[in-house]
Design brief:
This protein is mainly beta. The protein is built from two helices and 27 strands. The chain starts with a strand and ends with a strand.
């Protein structure tokens, strides 16, 4: 198989056609064969205000944030010059949040308490423009929905020095979250035209729903501090992620939403449209230490994550992606080493090992265990930077390399959506001019021009190909910075 483009790229068997009779000539990794112009435009605007003041022994902090996002997206999903399936999406959303936090200390006790509120309103649309796919009188599948979220929480944490060498930490947060969604998906004779019904209703799927979840998280930690250079900790955390609504661009792509024979909503479709909150029980044992008389640091931790109702992303058909709840288990080790053996030289090394599985993933008529996407077993990093005085300023040179083992891009663990292990290296040269206000940095990323994918979708059953986005090739950059 050979990737044939960078954005919306096809992976075809060389010399053989896809399901529409198109044969790719092999144009290389960064050349695409398509007819419309794909684009991804993002307009993100926001403001944050932070106020802090002291009242006696208490510090009060107020953090207010406002964000407005507009996104327009288009891609040639059929991966070739034909006009079989083109995908368009738009997002308009506003978010405002307010946090009020109190911090203080009384003797051996340090405490934090506060509240948080967030409101999010979003309007979304997704459209697949169809041609020659066997649906008489249909040229568009349009899905529109709006989502409203209101979330409020209160929290508190206490740190207590049991002795000079032991410290206990406890905390809790309660969250009340309400979500509502109005969702409609239908076939149209043309974009913005008249609905074309295939089932008992002109709508393919129409759902209005709302729910309120009460969630809580917990923290418990015991620290052992034998001296100023060593910290050993044992912790338990109960984390939560709120539930929500699925909003598939094409609900007919999965039998959990649409009956493939009648095109009516499938039994239990309302349950499939909602995914439940995710709960994580996290256990961690770790060490943080300063070594080499302060010229180095070594940190290591071992962890065990027990997920209940893990929100796993499932993908079906062409654009039918939705979340399902399954249990999952992750365990592993993280280690970091920072060294400053001589003046000007910094060395950083990191390694992480991850053993993970998601249970009971539906695959055909069976339920199987699968690996979590985007979670390689090994992740290794190394960085070296050396700086020295030069011409009255500071010259520096640095390089880093990162290696990851094989990883899956799909919950099915399909070979068509898998990335083999690879390493990326970067290098840079910098100079800070006298006075330290002006600096210049020259950078080379992906030094050895490695070819790799950052995301992939298995469309073999729909288009006879897989869709991949290829990572950036070797790139060069120069940055000039002036501080005042």
């Amino acid at each position: 198989a050979r990737p044939t483009g960078a954005y919306g790229t096809g992976v075809l068997t060389p010399g053989l056609p896809d399901f529409f009779g198109f044969t790719n000539a092999g144009n290389g990794y960064f050349k695409v064969t398509l007819d419309p112009v794909s684009f991804h435009d993002v307009d993100n605007r926001g403001a944050t205000a932070t106020l802090t003041w002291n009242v006696g022994d208490t510090t009060i902090s107020s953090i207010t944030d406002f964000t407005k996002i507009k996104v327009s997206y288009a891609e040639d999903t059929d991966l070739q010059p034909g006009e079989f399936y083109h995908y368009f999406a738009d997002q308009r959303s506003e978010q405002i949040s307010q946090e009020l936090r109190f911090n203080g200390s009384i003797g051996a006790v340090r405490w934090t308490a506060g509240g948080f509120y967030m409101a999010v309103d979003g309007d979304y649309s997704q459209e697949g423009r169809l041609k020659g796919l066997g649906l008489a009188g249909v040229s568009a599948l349009t899905t529109v929905y709006d989502v409203e979220t209101r979330s409020g929480s209160v929290f508190g944490q206490v740190e207590y020095d049991l002795s000079e060498q032991f410290r206990a930490i406890g905390g809790a947060r309660y969250i009340s979250e309400k979500k509502s969604q109005n969702y409609n998906s239908a076939f149209y004779d043309r974009p913005g035209g008249q609905k074309v019904g295939f089932g008992s209703s002109p709508d393919l799927l129409a759902v209005d729903g709302s729910f309120t979840d009460g969630l809580y998280s917990l923290k418990a930690e015991l620290d052992y501090i034998p001296n100023d250079d060593v910290l050993v900790f044992l912790s338990y955390n109960r984390g939560v992620k709120a539930g929500g609504f699925n909003s598939p661009a094409d609900p007919s792509g999965s039998a959990v939403f649409i009956n493939p024979t009648t095109f009516d909503p499938a039994p239990g479709f309302e349950k499939a449209m909602r995914f439940k909150p995710e709960v994580l029980h996290s256990y961690e044992l770790g060490l943080k230490s300063t070594i080499m008389d302060g010229n180095g640091r070594f940190n290591v931790s071992a962890f065990y994550y027990d997920y209940q109702d893990f929100q796993a992303l499932s993908f079906s058909g062409v654009t039918t992606s939705y979340l399902i709840n399954r249990d999952a288990t992750l365990k592993g080790i993280d280690a970091e080493l920072f060294l400053n053996p001589v003046d000007g030289l910094d060395l950083v090394f990191g390694a992480s090992y991850l053993d993970q599985v998601v249970h009971d993933i539906p695959l055909g008529t069976a339920s199987v265990d699968r690996k979590i996407p985007y979670a390689p077993t090994w992740n290794l990093t190394a960085m070296a930077r050396y700086a020295w005085d030069a011409m009255g300023g500071i010259m520096s040179i640095q390089g880093n390399v990162n290696y990851v083992t094989d990883q899956e891009f799909a919950l099915t663990n399909s070979r068509a959506a898998r990335q083999n292990g690879y390493a990326l290296a970067n290098a840079g040269l910098g100079y800070v001019f006298p006075g330290e206000q002006l600096s210049v940095q020259l950078q080379v990323n992906n030094l050895f021009d490695k070819r790799y994918s950052v995301v992939a979708f298995d469309l073999a059953g729909s288009f006879g190909a897989s869709q991949r986005q290829i990572g950036m090739p070797r790139t060069y950059s120069a940055t000039l910075r002036y501080e005042f």
